[in-house]
Design a protein that fits this description.
With 105 residues, the protein is mainly α. The protein has helices spanning 5-29, 46-57, 61-104. Helix 1 (5-29) packs parallel to helix 3.
Length: 105
Amino acid sequence: MIVNGFDVQSSFIGGLFIGVAGHIMSKILLTSYSLYYSGIIPLVPGGTAYEAIKNLILNDYHEALITMIKVALISSSIALGLLIADLLSKVYYKFKKHRQLNKVK
C-alpha cells in the first residue's frame, strides 16, 4: 500500500468544507459550531487503522509502518482542515465586525 497524496488532500478539503459549513450553520441557527463537526466521521480512516494493526500483529512491520504513516497523515489533514476553517471564520467575523464599527462612525 503506497501513501498517495490524493487521500491526504481530499481529507484536508473534506475537513475544511465541514469546518466552514459548521461555522456558517452555527451562525444561521445560533448553535455551537462543534455540533456540526460530527460530519468528519466518514473521513476518519478506521479501516486503514485496522489494516495497520493487523499487519503489526502478523509481523509485517514494513507494511504496518507505511499504513500507520498513512493513517497519521490522513488524520492530521482532517484536523488541519478544521483548524484552518476555524481560523478563516474568526478572521472573517472579526473583519466584518470591524467594518460595521467603522460604518457607524
